[in-house]
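From the methods appendix. Each design record in this collection lists the tokenized structure first, followed by the designed amino acid sequence. Records were kept in a plain field format so they could be parsed without special tools. The example shown here is representative of the layout used throughout.

RECORD:
FOLD TOKENS (81 positions):
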């Protein structure tokens, strides 16, 4: 099978996307909240495959379900044990 031409998207199966989405569960994250103009750190606790949303539990106690692709975020490096 030939490689797609440069600039052509490579489509992934939904299983591949779900596996990648589930891989970030347990990771530390920081999400930018534009209304407050600041970043908030937390942990990704779950992934809902049906809704395509991740559960973020912020360090300040707030929790929300987010579509990561719609957010400005950064995964934080894993802490050394």
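DESIGN:
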């Amino acid at each position: 099978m030939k490689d797609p031409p440069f600039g052509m998207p490579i489509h992934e199966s939904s299983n591949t996307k779900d596996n990648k989405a589930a891989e970030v569960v347990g990771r530390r994250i920081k999400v930018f909240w534009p209304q407050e103009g600041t970043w908030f750190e937390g942990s990704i606790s779950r992934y809902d495959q049906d809704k395509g949303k991740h559960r973020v539990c912020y360090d300040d106690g707030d929790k929300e379900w987010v579509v990561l692709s719609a957010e400005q975020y950064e995964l934080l490096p894993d802490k050394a044990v």
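APPENDIX NOTE: The radius of gyration is 15 Å.
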